[in-house]
Specification:
single chain; 76 residues; alpha+beta; two-stranded antiparallel ribbon; 3 helices
């Protein structure tokens, strides 16, 4: 029984990983962003995926649950 414990401890110690130093990593990138000032209410309304699907595919309809949740119903 003791030999199994000693052998398992030797295996654990031999398989343990050593920490290595990778040095420093320098990342320099300029992020370019565009600020949108005026957003039309139609653009925000058209951003809804469920409405876009119902307008483009006749086999898909939506069932309104609340102001922020829609259930997408797929017929067929």
């Amino acid at each position: 029984m003791n030999t199994k414990i000693y052998l398992s401890m030797i295996c654990i110690l031999s398989l343990s990983a050593n920490a290595t130093d990778l040095g420093t990593v320098d990342v320099s990138q300029v992020v370019q962003s565009k600020v949108i000032e005026n957003v039309n209410i139609e653009d925000v309304k058209n951003a809804d995926l469920a409405e876009m699907l119902t307008n483009s595919t006749p086999a898909i309809s939506i069932q309104r649950r609340s102001g922020i949740a829609n259930d997408i119903i797929l017929r067929g």
